[in-house]
Design a protein that fits this description.
The protein is of the alpha+beta class. Helix content is 39%, strand content 27%. The protein has a four-stranded antiparallel sheet. A hairpin with a 3-residue loop joins strand 1 and strand 2. The chain is globular, with a radius of gyration of 20 Å.
C-alpha cells in the first residue's frame, strides 16, 4: 500500500513538473504615437503571451495600466488617471478592475492594429500594437463609478 502511494505521488510530480509554463516579462513598454488633447490618445504597446491573442490582451492591458497608474510623459495624461499606488487602488476597487479587464476595457478602445508582425522566441509570442483609446469617456466612466473625483483627479 505504501508503494502505491509513493508511485502515485511520483506520477503526480512527474506530470506537473513537465507542464510548460509561460512567464511573460514585467515591462511597461508603452509609448505615445498620437494624441488629440484630452479626447483620445494612441499608444504603442508591446505585449507578451503564449499565443497571439494573449499577447494582444497583455498589450492592451498594459496600455490601460500605464494610463491609470503611471501616466504618459509629454501628453495630457502626464499624471496617472487614478494614482500611483497601483496595488492599494486595485484592492480598494476590486470589482471595477475585475470587470474592466475582463472585457469592459474594449469599449474604450477605438482601434487596435499590429504595428509589427508577431515575434515568437523561446515559446513566448510578442505583439507590438497601436491602440487608440477614448480617454474622455474613460475619465467619465472612472468618475461615474467613484474611482476618481469629478472635475479632476
Amino acid at each position: 500500500m505504501f508503494k502505491n502511494y509513493i508511485g502515485l505521488l511520483f506520477i503526480i510530480l512527474l506530470s506537473t513538473s513537465c507542464s510548460k509554463k509561460v512567464y511573460t516579462p514585467l515591462t511597461a513598454e508603452v509609448n505615445v504615437v498620437n494624441e488629440d488633447k484630452h479626447k483620445t490618445i494612441e499608444l504603442r504597446s508591446i505585449g507578451y503571451g503564449k499565443n497571439k491573442q494573449t499577447a494582444l490582451y497583455d498589450s492592451e492591458k498594459k496600455a490601460f495600466e500605464i494610463l491609470f497608474f503611471r501616466g504618459v510623459p509629454n501628453t495630457s495624461v502626464e499624471t496617472p488617471l487614478i494614482g500611483p499606488n497601483e496595488s492599494e487602488l486595485m484592492a480598494k476597487h476590486p470589482q471595477y478592475f475585475d470587470s474592466f479587464f475582463k472585457g469592459k476595457y474594449r469599449s474604450f478602445i477605438m482601434s487596435t492594429y499590429e504595428a509589427a508582425p508577431p515575434q515568437k522566441k523561446k515559446g513566448i509570442t510578442s505583439v507590438v500594437s497601436d491602440i487608440k483609446i477614448n480617454i474622455l469617456s474613460l475619465k467619465k466612466d472612472l468618475e461615474d463609478k467613484g474611482i476618481i473625483r469629478k472635475f479632476g483627479f
